[in-house]
Amino acid sequence: MSVMLECRSVTRRFGGIVAVRPIDLTLHAGEFLSIIGPNGAGKTTLFNLISGHDAPDAGRITLEGVEIAGHAPETIAARGLARTFQHGRVFANMSVRDNLLVGAHHRLRAVKPRLPGLGAVAELALALLRPPGVRAEEAALNREIEAIAAIFGDRLTPRLDQPAYALSYANRRRVEIARALALRPRVLLLDEPTAGMNESETLEMQHIIGDLKAGGQTILLIEHKLDLVMRLSDRVIAMDDGAKIAEGKPDAVRQDPAVIEAYLGHRAMGEAL
Amino acid sequence: MSSWLDYTINGLIIGNIYALVAVGLALIFGVSHLINFAHGSVYAVGAYIGWACFTYLHAPLAVTAPTVMIACAGLGVLIERVGLRPLAGSARIAPLLATIGISLVLDQLLQIIFTPDPRALTSPLPNWRIQIGGGTIGALDLLIAATGIVSAGVLYFFLRFTKLGWAVRATAQDRDAARQMGVDTDRVNMAVFAIASALGGLSGLLVGMYFNHIDPAMSFAATLKGVVAQVVGGMGNVPGAIFGSLLLGLTESYGVAIFGSSYRNLFSFALLLLILVLRPNGLFASARSTPPEPLTGSFVMPSRPVRVPRIAVIAAIAVAAIVPLAGAAPYVLQVLTNAWLFAMLAISLTLVAGTLGQISLGHASLLLIGAYASALLALDLHWPVWASVPAAGLVTALLGTALIAPAFRLRSHYLSIATLGIGEMVGLVILNWESLTRGPMGVTNIPPLQVGGVELDNPRAAYWVTLGVLVLLALLQTRLLRSHLGRTFRAIRDDDVAARAHGISLGRYKAIAFAVGGFSAGISGGIAAHLYSYINNETFTSTVSISALTMVILGGLGNVAGAVFGAVALTALPEMFRGTAEYRMLIYGLALLLLVRFRPQGVFGTT
Amino acid sequence: MTLLTLRKIDTFYGPVQVHFGLDIEVRQGQIVCLLGGNASGKSTTMKIILGLLRPRAGTVRFDGHDLTAMTTPKIIRAGIGSVPEARRLFGAMTVRENLLMGAFARSDRVEIAHDLDRMLELFPRVRQRLASRAGTLSGGEQQMVAMARALMGRPKLICMDEPTMGLSPLFVDRVLELIQTVNRDGVTIFMVEQNASLALAIAHYAYVLQTGRIILHGEAASLAHDPRIRDAYLGGKT
């Protein structure tokens, strides 16, 4: 199995607080790795470091062997890494369709010729002139994002041309995942995809993520709903206070005393079990 | 060397005056994260109240100064209570626009009451001066220095040792936590506006006495200087604002000493841009702070834009096209031609401010660039007008984008301040670059519009040409917005963090949007130059920028049809009332205030 | 006697419902804790009590007042002290100023000075840092200042949001002891906590919240051994 994503001794400090202690992480092609841990454990900070929204103070991050630590998020996205955000960051004033099309932005070719120096001018000219190649590309992308929307059953398809702000919270989360899929990611980072969803919606999402996994998608997941984590993950990493406290098969991590302590408290552990 | 001492003293005195303005802005920014663009108006009102006290009541300074402070404090409370508090919880751009509206209203009221003519505000202080080294200091200098020092001292004492002062500091640091201590943060806001406005009014009075000159235009200049000083010292930082003010005063004073007085403002804006580009958090910011969490989707009010059917657009264009044939008076045609020119500026601004979400406050400078480009190409290089106008569009696209590009990484308020500074600088460069622009003389004898050797200097021809160009530009922009660029711009506006996560490089797309906007605005300026036949550095001022912003908001941010509608409505309607210029701007100010409060999505809705 | 009552609270963030008919009672003189995992709606409950957020339906009553109709400063003046999540000290103000901010709603200067002395006895560590900027303190010291600041308002009830979050184990024990000490002095405590066994060790009564609903409540001693608590956090057995 080839290594898709690798973190080595990645560290991030905010002032005097160490948000992520030197942490190692390896994600193989087609693997489903989950990160669990209580609030404030540093999970989302780690995601931000990987996706380029924040730069580590030390350590290396490689995506398919290429160093990406401290690179701009748009560069990392263009290398095939897509992410969702913990609290949801859909483009509220845009239609669902446009949200998804923006997700596919880095795959635009016909309208974004690789011209050193004059790329932006050419892009503007092609956007205005719309030669057949550009129109064909837009049409193909539209068909593609319609197919992606269809993954979510009839949740998104009938709402493709509605503005995102009019959607329910659960549907916004779905739009965000669909938008990330539109990037055709080599590695997909999901930050609490089921936050704020009720049980049946969570189950539905679990099936969708399970299908993605079955389709060979490499996934790194942050999630609090451990049922979902246990069912889907190949491996689980538990974090607490910025550090990795356990790593391994889902069941082993769940039974790990350090993990139980992190969740329930250090005192009288075991008593509550 | 003696004159250097004079320049230093002069710089410190002016810096002291700026400090009284900047400290107020910093206090207000501290508690409400708002740049109060009405602050300069309060300062001007203070100067006029002082003038009235001296002139009509023959009051001594000891009575006048407290009167000014109390009246301005009251005005500040009014601004906070009526203008800003109702906007709590609305889009984050709303309070900023509201202060611009309030500023317009106050400035125009001053003009209407006191006329735009300058007045002398003679200092009642004795006229002695004392020698210090080679320089001299007068009683007024000492008073200003003392006022600055005493105000700083009182403010320090207030913030440090009084309960309300603590509440102010606590609110500035963490509004929610302060409320959880029982602090009524609404009252804190009000108190801060009162204190800031009292100091601002006092500053206006002192400046008026110092220069023995007051006029309504002093308002905008004061806001600019206060904002510059505050950016230098770090937004919301009170000691920083004082330091920034002194530094600004000295920079200007030395700059004037070396290059002459027409360069005074150029130096303040150069300082502003330098700080914004190099240290956007001010000179005292210790570490590079992380950008604030963008409030997703809160930039524009969510609304469903009105879909204008194609047939209605065609009908509107047709009606506009036959107006000259329907026997409209030349005067009506001129007003409408002007409206079309404004509409080109408005579609440019609606692209940048509405679609891309970068509120530009210096958009009129693009008109200046376009006007000068076309006029100079035609006069100095003898280009035909049919070529010089499009060329002016391209020049403006390039130059405008190059000027704003260093500020692309700034966000929201900071970007707006940068555009304001760049806009002012363009005018000042034109004023001072005499070899190219003819300086303060302006450019005269600009040839009229002509196509293929046929001069189009009658109102009808000018009308049709302008309308035709507008329709073309509007259609182009509509086409652009339907391409992948439209959604890319909107994605940047709604959430630039999420946009970057999908591979959108912000610089490239901001550049494209500013270039397209620059093109439309440059064309508008170019045509205007040939219609007016005379232009100078004050042909298009910041007032035009604010007017365009009002039009764009009236139409609905990002909405092309709305921008054209807004331009026509706000250009033509005041003409129907035959109002003078003052009343026109008063209407704009009130329109802006009412829109922000009651219909932030505009008539046609944001897109 | 019941000091604080939440009755049938429904809360929404935009279209998302956070609370579903929440019922909570806090009896005078007790330590009551609200347990639950991430995103269960715990912190939102605090915001509702403190008036930082309005419920769409339901009532909050405290000591004869209807809190749902009051602003946050008025609620504080009615006798509630707050130790916010992540402490939220005024970092650029000194520790002393922070403590005096806690007494902002009071005007009895002599008594305030007396209370300040009392706080320094209760929290001796704070005394050494009195003139320091609050932002320079360690997490544990900040937590003590935050508690002292809340006490300076002489509240009948203190609301604590995750008081042990981010503290080292040594400080966690100290903070818990202090909570008990304060409670013995007659102050009722309502605390939100993720760390279940810690909270149950000192609480009299506890509620367990899961996705906006109270799924369990009872005497803390009986809940401590209830396997359903583990399920609420770690998910059901597979």
| Tally of DSSP β-strands of chain B | 4
Rg of chain B (CA only): 24 Å
What's the CATH architecture of the largest domain in chain A?
A: 3-Layer(aba) Sandwich
The N- to C-terminal Cα distance of chain A equals 38 Å
Element string of chain B (H = helix, E = strand): HHHHEEHHHHHHHHHHHHHEEHHHHHHH
Q: Which residue ranges of chain B are poorly predicted, with pLDDT under 50 across at least 5 consecutive positions?
A: 286-298
Helical residue percent of chain B?
over 70%
- Report the principal-axis shape of chain B: globular
Strand residue percentage of chain A: 15-25%
Q: In a few lines, what is going on in this structure?
A:
The complex is a heterotrimer of chains A (273), B (607) and C (238). By secondary structure, chain A is of the alpha/beta class.
Please, could you describe this protein's structure?
The complex is a heterotrimer of chains A (about 270), B (about 600) and C (about 240). Chain A is α/β, with parallel strands linked by helices. Chain A has 2 domains: about 200 residues, Rossmann fold; about 80 residues, no CATH class. Chain A contains 10 helices and 10 strands. Chain A is globular, with a radius of gyration of 20 Å. Chain A starts with a strand and ends in a 9-residue tail after the last helix. Chain B has 2 domains: about 280 residues, ABC transporter involved in vitamin B12 uptake, BtuC; about 200 residues, no CATH class. About 0% of the residues of chain B have low confidence. In chain B, about 55% of the residues are buried. Chain B has about 600 residues and is mostly helical. Chain B is built from 24 helices and 4 strands. In chain B, the strands form 2 sheets. In chain B, strands 1-2 form a two-stranded antiparallel ribbon. Chain B has a two-stranded antiparallel sheet with strand order 3-4. With about 240 residues, chain C is of the alpha/beta class. The N and C termini of chain C lie far apart (about 40 Å). The longest helix of chain C is centred in the last third of the chain and has 16 residues. In chain C, α7 links the parallel β7 and β8. Chain C folds into 2 domains: about 160 residues, Rossmann fold, CATH 3.40.50.300; about 70 residues, no CATH class. At the B-C interface, α6 and α7 of B face α2 and α3 of C.
